[in-house]
């Protein structure tokens, strides 16, 4: 029996190392940016900011596409002067007996007799809702402001990985230790 050593010509070409490395660095960068987003949303955002994120993004996209109105589920504070968006100081998150997350009046709102909380499905102007959410819920932070730390984290990871790779292969090939005989 004779065996032929090496790679058969019909086996094809090996994947080049640079595109694989680049794809893995980009994947790690996106994952680290997503991780930063999750940490900020979970540990630093208020419950109302977490609840209204989809409405905030949707209202921004709809406004940019020149769509006028849309249906949203809003948590409103209702009193004798009218209704308005409930703000963070007036609500606290709770779980119902079925495990559904909702809100109730805070102790501060009860003492001030601010009114009552009402859930409403309303058709509202996208641009107006976006502005109201930006001012009253997100503290004048745009979507770009909210995404900036995550984007910055992803960029830093990609730059550091590129810098690390360029340092390891600065001579054009990997360093090899030689043993003197």
What can you see in these coordinates?
The protein is of the alpha+beta class and 181 residues long. The chain has one domain (16-162). It contains 5 helices and 5 strands; from the N terminus they run H-H-E-E-E-E-H-E-H-H. It has helices spanning 17-43, 47-64, 107-111, 126-137, 143-168, and strands at residues 69-79, 82-85, 91-95, 101-105, 116-125. The strands form 2 sheets. A 3-stranded antiparallel beta sheet has the order 2-1-5. Strand 3 (91-95) and strand 4 (101-105) form a beta hairpin. Helix 1 runs antiparallel to helix 5 and helix 2 (47-64) packs antiparallel against helix 4 (126-137). The longest helix has 27 residues, at 17-43. It is elongated. The model has no long low-confidence stretch (mean pLDDT 87).
Identify the notable features of this structure and list them briefly:
elongated; 181 residues; alpha+beta; 5 helices
Describe, in short, the structure shown.
This protein is α+β, with helices and mostly antiparallel strands and 181 residues long.
């Amino acid at each position: 029996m004779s065996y032929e050593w090496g790679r058969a010509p019909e086996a094809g070409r090996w994947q080049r190392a640079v595109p694989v490395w680049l794809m893995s660095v980009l994947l790690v960068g996106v994952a680290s940016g997503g991780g930063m987003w999750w940490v900020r949303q979970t540990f630093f955002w208020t419950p109302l900011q977490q609840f209204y994120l989809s409405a905030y993004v949707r209202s921004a996209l709809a406004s940019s596409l020149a769509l006028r109105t849309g249906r949203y589920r809003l948590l409103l504070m209702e009193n004798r002067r009218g209704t308005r968006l409930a703000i963070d100081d007036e609500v606290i998150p709770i779980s119902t007996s079925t495990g559904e997350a909702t809100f109730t009046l805070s102790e501060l709102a009860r003492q001030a007799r601010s009114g009552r909380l009402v859930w409403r499905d309303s058709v509202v102007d996208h641009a107006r809702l976006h502005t109201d959410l930006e001012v009253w819920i997100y503290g004048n932070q745009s979507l770009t402001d909210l995404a900036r730390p995550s984007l910055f984290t992803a960029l830093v990871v990609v730059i550091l990985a590129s810098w690390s790779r360029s340092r390891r292969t600065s001579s054009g090939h990997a360093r090899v230790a030689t043993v003197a005989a």
